[in-house]
Amino acid sequence: MAGRIPVVVNGATGKMGREIIKAVSQSPDMNLIGALAKNPKYLGEDIGEVIGCGALEVPVTNEYESMMAMLSQEKELGVVVDVTHPDAVYNNVRSAIAYGVRPVVGTTGLSAGQIQELAEFADKASTGCLIVPNFSIGVVLMQQAAIQASQYFDHVEIIELHHNQKADAPSGTAVQTAQMLAELGKTYNEPLVHETEKITGARGAQAEEGIRIHSIRLPGLVAHQEIIFGAAGQIYTLRHDATDRTCYMPGVLLSIRKVISLKSLVYGLEKII
Ligand SMILES: NC(=O)C1=CN([C@@H]2O[C@H](COP(=O)(O)OP(=O)(O)OC[C@H]3O[C@@H](n4cnc5c(N)ncnc54)[C@H](OP(=O)(O)O)[C@@H]3O)[C@@H](O)[C@H]2O)C=CC1
Ligand SMILES: O=C(O)C1=N[C@H](C(=O)O)C[C@H](O)C1
């Protein structure tokens, strides 16, 4: 369909992938042309039927390279949305860029070194790539509030709480939040006493500049984060709760629309809104 952004969703049968298939297929400026999944159970089936929204005439496939080749042949610049697994995402993104396809990466768990390598790769290819640890506007607002608060508070810890099918810890959102606070050029949480962990990990993971991250995994949770600031006589808590994955869809669609005009890798939704 002329003028529409051709989109392939990788991880199409997963929790995020299913929502993205619905959102993309209902967007008048996008054309869902591919649905990639790992599970052989769905191969060849119509992705619309698999996710229960009616036929979309897009069969599920696991042939990543062929999909990238097909996207690269489209008249309009093609986008692949990656919501797969931390073990797969790096190679997926490299391969997409090599085909001139624009990746929108929701998958978390990439290391800082891997992101740097992908940025160099995207730069050399002059190809846009968006890595978005969290697509929800609420998280962007929470992070902005945290940046403001950090001017006045020298002590902060992050608690992230997720469903217990999550592969990576800490969450990409928590890692990004800690980075944002660390980049402000101060060190947090100067200890008043010598601390001993009687059980390893009791004080959480140590991120940059003394910031601690605590990860909780339980059935019943979706995706939640608290940023807790402390000072003499007061506690300031910022909290975001994703209660349903539909909260990510406006950010996913915006990212698809924006990535086609980028010429390099951009990290974070806050950079494009
Ligand atoms: N940026 C954001 O705002 C958000 C990011 N996420 C991130 O998105 C990713 C996916 O999350 P979620 O949908 O909950 O996870 P799911 O496990 O529900 O879905 C992952 C999908 O990817 C497939 N998959 C798994 N391993 C591979 C692989 N090696 N190669 C290709 N496909 C693979 C799975 O297939 P199969 O079932 O066959 O294994 C499944 O379809 C995670 O990294 C998560 O942190 C999640 C929510 C919001
Ligand atoms: O796995 C999830 O569910 C989520 N992953 C992302 C992360 O690691 O930050 C975004 C959100 O927290 C949901």
UniProtKB/TrEMBL annotation:
Q: Which Pfam families match?
A: DapB_C, DapB_N
| Annotated positions binding (S)-2,3,4,5-tetrahydrodipicolinate | 163, 172-173
GO MF annotations, alphabetized: 4-hydroxy-tetrahydrodipicolinate reductase; NAD binding; NADP binding; oxidoreductase activity, acting on CH or CH2 groups, NAD or NADP as acceptor
The main enzyme category here is oxidoreductase
- Among the entry's GO cellular component annotations, what is one? cytosol
Please list the reactions this protein catalyses: (S)-2,3,4,5-tetrahydrodipicolinate + NADP(+) + H2O = (2S,4S)-4-hydroxy-2,3,4,5-tetrahydrodipicolinate + NADPH + H(+); (S)-2,3,4,5-tetrahydrodipicolinate + NAD(+) + H2O = (2S,4S)-4-hydroxy-2,3,4,5-tetrahydrodipicolinate + NADH + H(+)
The protein's Enzyme Commission number: 1.17.1.8
The GO biological-process annotations, alphabetized, read as: diaminopimelate biosynthetic process; lysine biosynthetic process via diaminopimelate
Q: Where does NAD(+) bind?
A: 11-16, 106-108, 132-135
- Note whether ATP-binding occurs among the keywords: no
Which residues, if any, are the signal sequence? Answer: none
Q: Which residues form the active site?
A: 162, 166
Tell me the route in metabolism or biology where this protein functions: Amino-acid biosynthesis; L-lysine biosynthesis via DAP pathway; (S)-tetrahydrodipicolinate from L-aspartate: step 4/4
Q: Which CDD domains match?
A: DHDPR_N (cd02274)
Q: Where in the cell is it found?
A: Cytoplasm
In terms of one coarse class, where is the protein primarily found? cytoplasm
Keyword tRNA-binding listed: no
| Quaternary structure annotation from Swiss-Prot or TrEMBL | Homotetramer.
Family per record: Belongs to the DapB family.
Role summary: Catalyzes the conversion of 4-hydroxy-tetrahydrodipicolinate (HTPA) to tetrahydrodipicolinate.
Q: What is this protein called?
A: 4-hydroxy-tetrahydrodipicolinate reductase
Give the organism the record lists.
Leptolyngbya boryana NIES-2135
